[in-house]
Amino acid sequence: MNKYNDHMNRKQIKTTFYISIMISILLLFVVGAGYNTIKLINNYKTESEWSFILSVLENNEDKANIQANLVKNDIIKDINTSYKDNKIQLKYDLDNMNTNNELSKIFDSNIRGKYINIDNDNNDIFVLSTWGQNNIDINGRIIYDKSFNCAIYGDTRSFDTELSMHYNYNIAYNSLKNIIDQNKEKPIVWEYLSSTNPNHKKIDYGTLSELKEVYIKEGIEGLKTYEVLNPVYINDKDDVLGTDVITNSGLHNQDNRQFVLVQGFSLYDALNSTSDMNKLIDIINKYTILGNVLEASVLFIIVLFFQILVSISKVQNMSSKLEELQANKDHE
What we know:
This protein is of the alpha+beta class. 58% of the residues lie in helices and 9% in strands.
């Protein structure tokens, strides 16, 4: 009798063991597949969000370019009307910018109040010139800027002073250099305002890959301090006085007085416009809901497998007891 019971117990243990192994393998497969799918959904979510942000960036670059070119055309028209062929006076006014000279008044009448999306310092126009010595290896200076947060420094200032004002020196330096060198690669970005996030990482160039990394780590708030710069050159190859930008020897002409209109805009402000932000929220919500449903499904399957395993064990125990009772009954 005991031999029979031992035999049956060993058989049941072996059967339960094999079933447990099969369920464990199946469970690992389901969990692994579920994990990979969740990871894939999260990647799709990030890529969809970033693709949308890029479309907003490109649309606003187009808006900035259109507005800056319209302003440029009006400025050229006013310069031609006011100065005619008086290049000496134009050169003097350009070198001695102040609120009283004619060139400053032309800038003011055409630029003041020109914003993109929101009326603030992150979305206005300023003007820089390629003429002016600095301690850094970039010639040039700011010759018109009505930003409130720069008012203490005046309308005109050297690039040395401009860079000292910025939270992120490196990206500002590289942006100014790209503008002066007429580097057409976009975006051109700088970071004047400081971030309130203690873990915010300063980036050096403002490339799309760097901005994407900031977004992935910090979300939309991480982009809040960046201003996209859209430069429009009064003339590409020479200045308003007719001096070539590049000398015959292929070097930057140190006596060139080319000036550049820079229409800035905040990507964060652009995204926070009602329609664009609603679209971004819809994308985030869609993938978040899908991810949550999948996570809940995987958890449900795990619980279900454990319940099946427990049920099998209980059935095996009941079967063993019934067989033992039957064997005792037969023995009697």
